[in-house]
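name: query_chain
kind: protein
chains: 1
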Amino acid sequence: MGLSPDEFWKLTPYEFNLMIEGFLAREERKTNDILYLAWHVEAFARSKRLPKLQTLLKKRKPKSQNQTLTKEQLIFIAKKKGLAGPW
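structure:
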């Protein structure tokens, strides 16, 4: 887990338990990733013909950019929802 003895003794049992749960979740994800990779390697090894690489590579959709709202837009939205404030 990478804790020094000093860091360990500063933790409460609850905090230590949370760290253990996080560590175990990370390790499980790593194991699942390795098994996923191994399964696909073997699946390709058993196939007669490989599919084209372009069909395997998925293009990710660009994430929508969060729009920054101006103060006026925020006030308009708040008033529209019936909120009263010190603006």
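note: Residues 1-49 form one domain.
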